[in-house]
Amino acid sequence: MPNEAIPSVVAMLVCDQVIIEQGTGKKSLIGVFERVNAFSFPTQTRLAIYAKLVDASGHYKFRIRLVNLKDESVLAELQAEANIDQGSVGEFAINIAGIVLPTAGKYEFQLYANEVYLHRVTMTAAAMPGGLQWPQQQQK
Q1: Nearest-CA neighbor of 111 among 4, 3, 1, 10?
Q2: CA 57 to CA 42: how far, in whole Å?
Q3: Which pLDDT score is estimated for 133?
Q4: Structure pTM?
Q5: How many other C-beta atoms can be found within 10 angstroms of the C-beta atom of residue 56?
Q6: If we measure between CA atoms, which residue out of 71, 63, 44 comes closest to residue 116?
Q7: What percentage of the chain reaches a pLDDT higher than 90?
Q8: How far apart (Å, rounded) are the C-alpha atoms in residues 65 and 61?
Q9: Is the CB of residue 112 less than 8 Å from the CB of residue 63?
Q10: Largest CA distance in the chain
Q11: Which of 30, 56, 66, 112 could form a disulfide with 7 if both were Cys (CB 3.0 to 4.6 A apart)?
């Protein structure tokens, strides 16, 4: 593993879902966002991470960490392995259900390949005041 090239990240995004088309392998990123709104905390959400890599060649152990930037605590860590052929573009897409954000604030997804830090993308979790206000029925 020490001989693998260090990939460069040309895109890393957070979205609601990544759909991979059967047959072509094309990826559709649904609902790209940078902010999660919640009525209360802790809150649970589902999301997806997409990354596009260039200059990669060989076998890689990827790791994504979700870090609360308020105190640098690691909230989640996911791992995957992949072989990337020389001259090809590597894409990393993962749908994640059940992510718990403990408080409002800034969070960071950090991407590593073979224990080398590659890139990060941040996301803000914000409290929404009030709640859903349903229209009042008129009295007759």
Answers
A1: 10
A2: 40
A3: 45
A4: 0.86
A5: 23
A6: 63
A7: 80
A8: 13
A9: yes
A10: 78
A11: 56
Environment class of residue 111 by beta-carbon count within 10 Å: exposed (0-12), middle (13-18) or buried (19+)? buried
Terminal-residue alpha carbon distance, the chain: 75
- DSSP class per residue in 46-61: EEEEEEEEES--EEEE
Give the type of residue at 39: F
Match domain 8-127 to its CATH number in 2.60.40.2550, 2.40.50.140, 2.102.10.10, 3.30.70.20: 2.60.40.2550
- Candidates 127, 121, 48, 58; CA nearest to 87 is 58
Strand order in the sheet with 27-32: 27-32, 8-20, 43-54, 90-101
Tell me whether strands 73-84 and 35-38 are parallel, antiparallel or unpaired.
unpaired
> What confidence tens digit (pLDDT) does each residue in 96-108 have?
999 999 999 999 9
Domain ranges of the chain: 8-127
